[in-house]
Every structure is written in C-alpha cells, then in structure tokens.
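>> received
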Amino acid sequence: MSEIVVSPVKNKKELRAFVRFNYELYKDCPYAVPDFLEDTLDTFNPKKNPAFRFCEAEFFLARKEGKIVGRVAAIINHRANETWKQRNVRFGWIDFIDDLEVSRALLEAVEKWGAEKGMNRIVGPLGFTDMDLEGMLTEGFDQLSTMNSIYNYPYYPQHMLQLGYEKEVGWVERKVMVPGKGHEANRQKYFKVAELVKKRYGFRIHKFKNKKEIYEGGYIPKVLGVVNKAYANLYGYSEMDEEQMNTYAKQYLQYLDKRYLSVVETAEGEVIGMGICITSLSRAIQKAKAKLFPFGWYHMAKALWFNRHPQILDMLLVGVLPEYQEKGANALIFADLIPEGTKDGYEWAETHHQLEDNGPSQAQWKNLECTIHKKRVAFGKNLNVK
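>> returned
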C-alpha cells in the first residue's frame, strides 16, 4: 500500500498547485465551478487579504506516489474565536480523491496543527471569514454551482461521517423563479407591502448613476455595515472592518450591474438594508478554465455585457438591519429587483446559502415560486487535546 504524505505548502509553485488541484479534480464535472486562480491566490496572500491581520493559516498538500491527491487549508480566525468564546481551528478549501486514507491524513494534519496552537475543536469547511466559501454540499450534486459556493462530490460527506465528524450547522440554497409568464406566484404582495412601508415609514430605494457614486458617497461601509449587523448572530460570523470591506468591494464591484444593487434608506438617509445580485458567471469560469488570463477575460466579458439571453441571476447578499426586519424593508428590495430581472429575461435567481434554522431569512421567499435545490453542512469534531 502506497504511503500518503501530507506536507505544508512551502513556496509559490506549491501554492499554485494547491489552487489548481481543484480544477484538475473537477475538470470533467459539468456542475463544478473551480476556484478562480487569480482571486484565490490573492485570498491566500497575507499582503492582499486583510483577514490575515486576525487569522493565521497553513496549507497542506497530500501526495501518493509523488502525485497530488488532496489539499486542505488550516485556519484559525482569532476574531471569531474571541467573539464566540471558542477555540476552533477551521478546515477549508478541502478536496481529495475518493480514498478514505487521503481525507483522513489531510484532516489529521489540520487537527494536529490546531491542537499545537491550543485549539480544542475542528470545524468546516469554512474560510477565513463568512465572505469566503463555506459548507460541504450534501444535496444538489446535479445542480450547477456558483462562483461563491463550494461544489464537492457525493463521497465527501460520507468520508466526514466515517472519520467521526458530526453535523455542526446546515444551510439551504433556493432556486427562485423570476416572476413572469407562468411564474407569477404572489409577487404583487411585495409591491403592495413596498408601497405601504414607503408611506408609513418613509423608506426609499437609493439607486446609483455609476460606481464612482458608490465609492464617493461612502456607500461601501454603509452597505457592508448592514451586513455586519444583520449577520452578527449567524454561525461563526466575524465582523468586517473597513479594510476588509474595501477588499470585498473591489473584488465584486467589477462584476456588478448597478441596476442590481438595491439599497434601502430611511427618510433621513440612513442605510438599513441592501440586496446585491450579479449575472451568473459559472459557465464563463468553466470555459475560462478558472484563469482570467490570457483568454479567460473574453468569456467573463461575454457573460457580463454581451449575453442577450441570461438564464441565472446570483443573489450575493440580502440583508436588513435587525430592527427593521419586521417593518417590510426587504419588500422594497424585492420590489426593486424583480422588475429588472423580469425585463432582462432571467429564468431564475440563485440565493446565497442561508442557515436552515433562520426563520426570518427562510420566510422572505414565501411569496415567490421557489424550491430548495441544494443543502450544505459544516462538520465538527472535538480534538484530543492533552
């Protein structure tokens, strides 16, 4: 039996191999959307990812007969641990061939690394922060993934259970049909509620003329500040600071059609809610083979600006300040975004992952025709700390 060797990434060449292993493992899978090489390398670069100011990480590769057969990142988010009064080491960016000894060796490397640093529990898959990819897919293996979610083969969660891991938390994702002929549902309810809250509370939708206005108007910290407060009590969340906000804005605003940024304000101009969508880039990334250069940019540009028949709209973020969640603020977001999606001919919207036990979040879809088509789980296990 060939020995499995797990070792930490030592240089840029190995780090690049770490990122590209995901593409090699899934290159023949029609549902997987691989890690974007350039963006992922930046995520792993302490000089470019501000999360390294409160996180530390190690990256491991598993080899069998000299060939890479698995990868995993070990991460400690000290800010999250302090917030939640925990000593967790996270595992993320985990991929492996269907060999239990490979997955065992990878996770044992993370367990050992975490225990040596004083951690007492391992959880994942999670990233540095809540803005990174998280949750192992457990249902929906025949559904197209997104650039902001993890795809994995069905054997992954089976390995986790065999290795003694247990479900820590679960998320669901929905396919929401864009209202139109044959899919009207009760969308008029959003418009009625939107008009009511405008009159009763003076709420309004702020739309932007260009991206320059978003920056110069100070809307990056205002909008992502809503995320901090709306997501504060969600599993494992650690608050974003201004540097992180600017980093995420730079990463995603390049893909944004400003019509799909919906910001809710009070009559006094306070930002209390937001919804952000982009056209699906999944097929474009597959065609680009997860690299922007030398030719990947063509597929991205085609999907963003020259696609006359878009099919899927990705809902990146939807959030409302807790004190306004029962006042219909989210109805304004949907009443603003639905007409745009209908006009552009989208067939459905793909929601971001939402905690399965988050009642208010799950209830916001009740007036639209939708179905849960993916489920994912974070697994956990206590460490044998002496």
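>> DSSP finds 13 helices and 14 strands in the chain.
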